[in-house]
Amino acid sequence: MTKMPETTTGWKTKSHQFALHGILKLAALLGALILFSGCNRGLRYQRTQVETPPAYKEMEGWKTAQPQDDTLRGKWWETFNEPQLNAFEEKVNVSNQNIASAAASFLAARALVKEARSQLFPTVTTNPSITVQRPPSSSGSGSSSKSSTGTFTDYTLPFDATWQPDLFGRIRNTVKAAAYGAQASAADLENTRLTVHAEVAADYFQLRGQDALKQLLDATVIAYQQSLDLTRALYETGIDSEEAVAQAETQLEATKAQDDNLGIQRAEFEHAIAMLTGQPASTFSIPIEPLKSNPPEIPVGVPSQLLERRPDIAAAE
Questions:
Q1: Phi, psi dihedral angles at 160 (to 5 degrees)
Q2: Strands 129-133 and 152-156
Q3: CA 265 to chain CA centroid, nearest Å
Q4: What is the pTM of this model?
């Protein structure tokens, strides 16, 4: 009876030792995880500090630039009050292949961000299966009796779970790099849209300029034809010379050639608009109509504000 307390006391002492040893192991493990989680070997980007003056001595209103490379430009072409130009610009958003390619690149960049971020979480895989077995029937030798044990169905649901701790910051740095790439891709998308919309507007106004010049040359050809008829009449009456008739003919033919060349240049701008709007050039046509509206006034501060929207600077950074 005297040995029972000694045995119990010894068991309790060993139990406390095991518990303390387990707590120390757990604390050491947590400390190692915290220590390794801070060991981020990736290079940290630090923006270069540049001392800028508060203002230029030659100009008031100086301010620090704020990057706006991914800003939506809006329907800026509506300021020209050209309904046909507005219709072409709307087709660009849905039919231009350059914009579609840039949009697909942006979606791919966003998918890369999600893929990189998924590495921070555990991965669970499973391969369920159902197996149905029917044993072969057996019959005794020399008899007609048969026996069957029935059908067996086996359900299997195995799964495997894995997780890799981000001790040295590799996954976090990958997520940051993918996020920066997505931001640059978004800026490139908006820059592509701006470039295509601006090209459509430029080609449209070039085409309308050709229409106005065509109208002027058509009137000039009529005037030169009348001048040639008058010069010939004067030559037939002996008032004017044959040299004056030749000069009038040369002037008229040169103006006709210039008028025909305008038609070729107009067709080039028309085909360019067809390509940018995603339409076949063989069936695309724009009626001849010179510009009637005056261009809008351009504010003085627009060029400096446009510098804040350059996506190449943001992408390089």
A1: -135, 130
A2: antiparallel
A3: 32
A4: 0.63
